[in-house]
UniProtKB/TrEMBL annotation:
PROSITE patterns: CYT_DCMP_DEAMINASES_2. Pfam families: dCMP_cyt_deam_1. One of its GO terms (molecular function) is guanine deaminase activity. One of its GO terms (biological process) is purine nucleoside catabolic process. It comes from Conyzicola lurida. Belongs to the cytidine and deoxycytidylate deaminase family. Residues 19-141 form the CMP/dCMP-type deaminase domain. Its EC number is 3.5.4.3. Keywords: Hydrolase, Metal-binding, Zinc. This is Guanine deaminase.
Length: 173
């Protein structure tokens, strides 16, 4: 997948973008390596807007007892607090490793403009992380998963959405 995506992304990048990308990726990789010596997982990320650093993040899963505290999620949370918005539209996430499905989804929810990564899911697998396994899982029928995912639909299942749509003062996201 990378072999197809990388030249295409480079072709669309502005002049000088490659040097900027290298600079921010280097910071993400430094954060990742540093994190290992600080009791965290080997992952780091930064979020940048118009060449300006908005936030940094490191993996804090074991330190915080939080399985969702991936470096990208940590950086997204910090960036949202920094800019006072739940949207990071127009910003770029640089991460030391290809985002797992959780972080890729978080990036979509955050409306990031770009995601740039260094190491890939195969590097992560070598390190003992499940990224590649989860990607493969999503490609398979849920009936084959080790974790049960079941739909149970009571009559009032759609009720929260009725309440949401009826609320004129809602903040759409
Ligand atoms: Zn992740």
């Amino acid at each position: 997948m990378n072999d197809i995506d990388t030249p295409d992304a480079a072709a669309h990048a502005a002049p000088g973008q490659a040097a900027l990308d290298a600079k921010w990726l280097a910071r993400a990789i430094d954060l990742a390596t540093l994190n290992v010596s600080q009791g965290g997982g080997p992952f780091g990320a930064v979020i940048v807007r118009d060449g300006e650093l908005i936030a940094e993040g490191q993996n804090r899963v074991t330190a915080n007892l939080d399985p969702t505290a991936h470096a990208e999620v940590t950086a997204i949370r910090a960036a949202c607090q920094a800019v006072g918005d739940f949207s990071l539209a127009g910003m770029t996430l640089y991460t030391s490793c290809e985002p797992c499905p959780l972080c890729l989804s978080a990036s979509l929810w955050a409306r990031l403009a770009r995601v740039v990564f260094a190491a890939d899911r195969d590097d992560a697998a070598r390190g003992g992380f499940d990224d590649r396994e989860f990607y493969e899982l999503f490609a398979r029928d849920r009936a084959t998963w080790g974790m049960a995912v079941e739909a149970v639909r009571p009559e009032n299942a759609p009720e929260p959405f009725d309440a949401w749509l009826a609320l004129e003062a809602r903040t759409d996201y």
